[in-house]
Amino acid sequence: MRIALDNDKCVGHGRCYALAPDVYDADDEGHCILKFPDAPIPVELEAKAKLGAANCPEQALIVTED
Questions:
Q1: Which residues contact 44 (CB under 8 A, 6 or more apart)?
Q2: 38-47 long-range CB contacts below 8 Å, 24 or more apart?
Q3: Is 41 helix (H, G, I), strand (E, B) or coil?
Q4: Which of 17, 28, 49, 54 pairs with 2 at a CA distance of 20 to 30 A?
């Protein structure tokens, strides 16, 4: 599983990194930063990654299955 971020959609609500801080982080302005930008999400973090993505009001996070 991988997560992609559409930076143009993210406005920094912070729900993703509040719910899944092991997968998502924030920049200085509160916008999402992916902790695994070019790698698969570790299996043990997949549920949290999906939860964070599902709670993004702008749908800026895209989950893809490998």
A1: none
A2: 39/2, 40/1, 40/2, 40/66, 41/1, 41/2, 41/3, 45/20, 46/1
A3: coil
A4: 28
Count how many domains the chain has: 1
Q: For the domain that residue 49 is a member of, what is the CATH number? A: 3.30.70.20
- Tokens standing for 23? 């997968």
**What CA–CA distance (Å, rounded) separates 47 from 43?**
8
The 10 Å Cβ neighbour count of residue 8 is: 8
- Tens of pLDDT along the chain (66 residues) come to 999 999 999 999 999 999 999 999 999 999 999 999 999 999 999 999 999 999 999 999 999 998
